[in-house]
Amino acid sequence: MRAVVLALSLVLVTGQSFQFAPGFAPGKTIVYNYETQLMSSIPEEGLAKAGVKFNSTVSISAESENVYFLKLGKPQFFEFSGISSEDHFIRAENLTKSMASQFAAPIKFEYVNGVVGKIFAPEKISKMVLNMHRGILNVFQLNINKTDSVYELQEAGAQGVCKTLYAITEDEKAERILLTKTRDLNSCSEKIIKDMGLAYTEKCDKCQQNSKNLRGITTFSYTLKPFGNRFMIQEAMVTELIQFSPFAEINGATQMQTKQFLGFNNVQNASLVSGATQYVHRGSLKYEFSSEISQMPIQLFKVDNVQRQVRETLDYLVLQNAERVHEDAPQRYLELIQLLRVARDEDVEIMWNSYKSQLDYRQWLLEAIPAIGTAASLKFIKDKMDDLTVSEVARALAAATHLVTADSDVIKIFKALIDNNKIKEEADLRQIALLGFGTMVSKCSEESAKCPAEPLKPIHGLIAEAISNRDIQEIVILLKVLGNAGHPTSLKPITKLLPIHGTAAASLPLTVHVNAIMALRNIAKKEPRKVQELALDLYMDKAIHPEIRILACILLFETRPAISLVITLANIVKSEGNMQVSSFTFNHMKAMTKSTAAIHASVAAACNVAIKILSPKLNRLSFKYSKVIHRDVYDSTLMLGAAASIFFINDAATVLPKSFVAKASAYIAGAATDVLEFGVRTEGIQEALLKNPALNNNADRMTKMKRVMRAISALRNLPTRTPLASIYVKLFGQEIAFANFDKDYINQVLAYAKGPSVERHTKSAFRAMMSSLSVNYVKPLLATEMRRIIPTAAGLPMELSLYTAAVAAFGVQVKLTTSPALRENFQLAHLLKTEVQLETEVKPSLAVNTFAVMGVNTAMFQAVMMSKAKLKSFLPVKIAASLDIKEGNYKIKVLPPTVPENVAAVQ
Q1: 483 C-beta neighbours (distance < 10 Å), count
Q2: d(CA 20, CA 64)
Q3: Which end of the chain has a smaller Cβ tally under 10 Å, C or N?
Q4: What average pLDDT does the segment 206-232 reach?
């Protein structure tokens, strides 16, 4: 209220209507001194710090009512890196002419009652420079309340719309208003943040308990003085602290501190003039992401000539990693990726044409191009389809699926790839492309706002067509696509394939029902209630196959059900007639009671109650009954944990499970993810092998091998569509590969085994080994690229990143001799009468670099604090083997290899 009293007194003195909001007088230009400073550090003495400082003047004048010009003076940049005082900044390099001209141009902005509206600027001003202007305008954002001295509101700023607390007091002696506002960056209705590489993680609020990994607060302190019939900002100081603790805060945290100072300098009796500059609408006060997305935060090198630097980097990677990985190979591989990210499409084309005929160089390029991480990666693969081998397409497409950031352009390219003739003709390529399409849809919904409205509509249409054609294999693969996508729009098409209440889907094979329910698992993360209802329906229907009901139980617990639903399951089990379902459900509940992970806390408590309702006899059933094993460990102080789950689904026919699923999960820094999962189903092969009494008789090894081969051959007499077995592998919740084994597959294997190509290839291999065979293979991998970019109050981006790059090399030397010596045109039958001496030296080597980065990352400058860990290992193995097939004698000896002084090192 004191501010109101001061305003009223000013009205009486001047006789004018006083405006509470700050403003700028027509025909005048107000000049401020402006300084901003950003510093990343660990708040302990003697530890590294990195920062940047920016000084300039800010001039503001009115163009018309509520529209103003803002112009910066010649900016000066300073950088800091080290341990000493934060004041020891060093003058940065001069700006380029292009950048200097951007800073020299004025921008326009709407300003009504202290609120910044639309921003207008020339097109030549980059997003990065405009964001720095937003950081200045962010200081002028003031929602002054006429009646209250303390109040709270959701206020728009450069970082989004966040909860802000205002407090206003009056300094009567100095005739000024003191205003402070505090913005809580953890309580935002619209928070501007960019996450990359985190699409496969699930937020785990319970894992963080009372501690947040990322906290942010901004405080503004203003001194306002009367200026005409308005208040004018005399001085403003902004302090922002963003703190990141990968573990609990008690163990310390890294932090980014931003300081801004705006101080009145003078008033000029002239307005700023824009000249003939064309202004376009460039958004609002909210920060817009720009080139920092493609700019690695690691200070690797300065890019000046892309083509030359790519050649130099490739030369190093090829020459230095021919037989053994160099310890710097991962970092140089990251350099190659960064160069390709900033390269133009024509540069990449030139590089490819230069090296595509050189196998080693070609391999490194094909390993790096998917890691560019944009639509350009996929476009390259699509355009070069005819130049690449099937295995090269498979590797590049699989890598791009997980490294490329998804958006609408990427989705379109994937659709085009699925329709490509080469991919259509190769079943394995089509599988990779389809599963990758599902993964891209999932990533798009997590990472980008630019996603198609109905991205899976073509897949839904293909499923309907496959059902009408009764094409079971096609239905299964399309269900796996929908499972990877995890999109709620697929709930209805999947439900139509489940045997609910005697629907038409009941006539479909069990394998369809199994894959349909497995496809719901990722959808359950977004629509847990709807999936719970569906899963409970399946579980309660005793007419449904027990395996489906057991899978429904797994699905229910993955939705983390409330105690009421867990107790409902327990009551159903009390009257359950199928011991497989009863055993599995009881075991699942009992396994969950032992969980220490915070994410399972409520389920564990509910299961503790539920198992008390059930009979302890269920705990004493043999392994012929379905079981669950779950083990986890979680440290709430470190906010780190891991879990392993194994599901055995049986039908009591044998002690071996009919279906087996194993899953490993991790909890880190407030997020949870399923790292690896694989599953096996043996629908026909188990019975065919284990019910053959001939296999159980005592016999020598060769006789048993012959009987097994006869049993496998007997599988050829099964009906064509009888499924024998299937296997799948998931990485981070996404299915990356699967295989189905049926009669046709067995026929293909047996035909190949008897074919002339096997003999020809075996002979070629023996001849190569007799002349001393040497093989070297190098595999680089961008294992991790996790980034979180957050705008600071100053309009510069703060980045938290974790990179892991690895390069593995595998060298093999083989020398083979025979006694008696084989003739040039020998037959495979001769091997049965020959003693073979084989000497092999294997030289595996590995180098891994991990970088953890926090700081400011822009195309113009980087000021980051970086932690680096390195691992290198080289452990050769030399083996001599003697094989006398005729006499049945086998000898294997491990010989002493030439071992370096250090076989492994960690830094």
Answers
A1: 27
A2: 19
A3: C
A4: 78
Report the candidate in 317, 409, 297, 398 with the shortest Cα–Cα distance to residue 364.
Answer: 317
> Given a cut of 80, is residue 687 above it in pLDDT?
no
CB-based contacts of 73, cutoff 8 Å, min separation 6: 56, 57, 58, 59
Contact 508, 497 (CB under 8 A): yes
Q: What size, in residues, is the chain?
A: 907
* CA nearest to 605, candidates 592, 586, 622: 592
Question: What are the structure tokens assigned to 317, written together?
Answer: 């990677």
Residue appearing with tokens 């937003």:
134
Distance of alpha carbon 461 from alpha carbon 446, whole angstroms? 24
As a three-state string, the secondary structure of 443-458 is HHHHHCCCCCCCCCHH
* Stated pTM of the model: 0.84
List phi, psi (to 5°) of 496.
-65, -15
Q: 252 in the Ramachandran plot: left (φ > 0), alpha (ψ -120 to 50) or beta?
A: left
Angle 359-363-367 (CA atoms, 0-180°, nearest 5)? 175
Between 172 and 111, name the one with better pLDDT: 111
Tokens 């009919």 belong to which residue? 658
| Distance, CA of 800 to CA of 786 (rounded, Å) | 8
Residue of 528, 707, 639 whose CA lies nearest to 206? 639
Angle between helices 390-403 and 359-368 (to 10 degrees): 30
Q: What confidence tier does 830 reach under pLDDT thresholds 50, 70, 90?
A: low
Asked if residue 844 lies in contact with residue 872, where contact means CB atoms within 8 angstroms, the answer is no
Give the three-class secondary structure for 886: coil
pLDDT, tens only, 666-685? 887 677 888 899 898 887 66
CA distance 861 to 52: 9
Mean pLDDT of 612-640: 80
Contact 166, 178 (CB under 8 A): no
Quote the tokens at residue 134.
């937003």
Contact 649, 550 (CB under 8 A): yes
Half-sphere exposure of residue 16: CA atoms within 13 angstroms, side-chain side: 10
pLDDT of residue 15: 43
**Hey, which residues does 667 pair with through a beta bridge?**
641, 672
Bridge partners of 654, per DSSP, are none
Bridging pattern class, strands 904-906 and 230-244: unpaired
Q: Does position 531 have pLDDT exceeding 60, yes or no?
A: yes
Residue 349 DSSP label:
H
DSSP string, 806-828: EEEEEEEEEEEEEESPPPTT--G
N-to-C CA span, the chain: 61
Q: How confident is the model at residue 10 (pLDDT cuts 50, 70, 90)?
A: very low
Please state, in angstroms and rounded to a whole number, the distance separating the CA atoms of residues 741 and 64: 76
Six-digit token pair at 259? 């300081």
At residue 483's C-alpha, the angle toward residues 480 and 485, to 5°, is: 115
Question: What is the average pLDDT score of the chain?
Answer: 83
Of the candidate ranges 270-274, 369-373, 539-543, 701-705, the one whose mean pLDDT is the lowest = 701-705
DSSP assignment, residue 213?
S
HSE toward the beta carbon, residue 255, CA cutoff 13 A? 17
Residue pair 58/31 in contact (Cβ under 8 Å)? The answer is yes
Return the structure tokens found at 451.
């996603």
Q: Are 170 and 177 in contact (CB under 8 A)?
A: yes
pLDDT of 1 reads: 45
Report pLDDT for 243.
87
Dihedral pair phi/psi, residue 610, rounded to 5°: -65, -40
137-164, pLDDT tens digit by residue? 999 999 988 788 899 999 999 999 999 9
CA distance 259 to 692: 78
pLDDT value at residue 8: 41
pLDDT at 701 over 70: no
Distance of CA 846 to the CA centre of its chain: 24
